[in-house]
Specification:
26% helix, 5 helices, single chain
Length: 208
């Protein structure tokens, strides 16, 4: 699946809403939540580069089809995996429909697989690697808990440090303590942050 960055973001934010509205005439689904509890769409990054994408949407309808939603995701993921053999896989780890919300948990082997599926970046790795992929742009980052700021030039001097780069309004879970954030990122705690709702462009989080 090839999507533009804008198209990928729209797909991610609307896919559950559109599907559940279309399938609301079918039987009610039931499910049990097995993953860490999230109440908003969240990207969780592992040290090994794996990305867990938890998509959460709320609904007011009385009935949803978990079966139909699961079949849709499995079809899209199967299509991707079968045409991108050897480039990293996607798995539907969990699906929950009920209590007025729908939650799908997709696991990506790496950031390249995420980008290929959605067409929008979700990167975790060294600043040097992020630069090579074209993700490091002119920016100013602020050190957590201090007034100190760093520019792109300063950032490149930390080339071996790890950085998270996203372009979505989403909650972020980091594998390590967050050290610097760009202005469009709101810190929640030492390992969690949220990209501001009015954010445009890329959001940066440097971690220890």
């Amino acid at each position: 699946m090839t999507l533009s960055c804008k198209g990928g973001i729209i797909l991610k934010k609307l896919i559950l809403l559109c599907l559940c509205l279309c399938l609301s005439f079918t039987i009610a689904g039931c499910g049990s939540e097995k993953e860490e509890e999230y109440f908003e769409t969240t990207l969780s990054f592992d040290k090994d580069g794996k990305i867990t994408d938890v998509i959460v949407e709320s609904f007011s309808e009385d009935y949803y089809s978990e079966e139909g939603l699961r079949a849709y995701f499995q079809e899209k993921i199967s299509d991707y995996n079968s045409t991108n053999i050897g480039t990293g896989e996607i798995k539907l780890s969990d699906l929950f429909v009920g209590d007025g919300r729908a939650k799908a948990t997709l696991v990506f082997d790496n950031s390249d697989t995420y980008f290929a599926f959605y067409g929008t970046p979700a990167f975790y790795g060294t600043i040097s690697d992020a630069y090579d992929k074209g993700y490091i742009q002119e920016t100013v980052l602020k050190k957590v808990g201090e007034s100190k700021t760093i520019s792109k030039i300063d950032l490149m001097k930390m080339s071996d440090a790890n950085i998270i780069v996203v372009s979505e309004v989403v909650r972020i879970h980091s594998p390590n303590k967050i050290e610097y954030t760009s202005a469009n990122v709101e810190l929640i705690d030492e390992k969690n942050a949220r990209v501001s709702s009015d954010s445009t462009g890329l959001a940066y989080i440097v971690v220890k």
